[in-house]
Amino acid sequence: MKLPVQTWFDRATSRARDWPLDRLRADKGRTRVSVVLPALDEEPTVGGVVRMVRRLADDTGLVDEVVVMDSGSTDGTARAAEAAGAVVHHRDDVLPELGSRPGKGEVLWKSLAVTTGDVVVFVDADLVDPQPQLVTGLIGPLLADPSVELVKGCYDRPLKGAGGSSGGRVTELVARPLLGRFFPELAGVVQPLAGEYAGRRRLLEAVPFSGGYGVEIAMLIDTLRLRGLGAIAQVDLGRRTHSHQDTAALGRMAAQITHVVHERALGATGSTTAVTQFARDGYGHYAPVTHVMDLAERPPMITVDGYAHRVAKVS
Length: 315
Known about the structure:
Elements: H1 4-12, E1 13-15, H2 21-28, E2 33-39, H3 43-60, E3 65-70, H4 77-84, E4 87-90, H5 104-111, E5 119-122, H6 133-144, E6 150-156, H7 169-182, E7 197-200, H8 201-204, H9 215-227, E8 232-239, H10 247-266, E9 272-280, E10 286-294, H11 307-314
Parallel strand pairs: 1-8, 2-3, 2-5, 3-4, 6-8
Antiparallel strand pairs: 5-7, 6-7, 9-10
């Protein structure tokens, strides 16, 4: 007898090649698709990702707009994105009356206020070899099945010098064990922290957006609670090549993810978390360095004054 995880996995998992362009075009109809790239100091790579999406839009008509959300870059990220054909919004210019916060979750949340898609695809801006299936695979289940509301990407993530598919260290060491303990229904999700995923606007505007790196796993858990496991699907996108962070940065990421899961599973309170790490000082001795991270959540966008009116006006 199959375990529930295996049953969901078999039903909800597809491959990018299962969604050929002809089928996608037939299923798209009048559905608008927005592709959003959150970016912070990604000048070397953001242009290549935007050009890939723009080619897909021009050649197939499957993408209606390409938006880069600048999270406070100090390099030429915005210029590179605009030159490649994206519309660029700086986080400080979107909903300025609500202020701005650092972190990925903030710009993903604000992207809902400046995009028009019925389906929104999120793609990280640090990809080295971006391929169209990162978009076409993710929109496939959403265009084909109205009951699907969130599609997560999964892929091999090669880590230079480690062999095999050794990327995703926080996923395997932190995220998946936590989900297995507290939300076992989600144990079949291969990449719960994947930066490539897509959702229906009606879902994305109904869930809060966690600050920092907890945004993806929070959205997954909140979708389970709000819509049920049947609303979640995943697509094998093949291989994803991108930059990797050092161990200290991964430790801070792990702390944020742990905070978000415990908050949802155990009712833990507080919008900040702190992690103390150790580095050599100028004398060769270890010195503690404490990082305090603000993980305050943004509320569901549908509750923001003026948002519902703006969406109705656009549609």
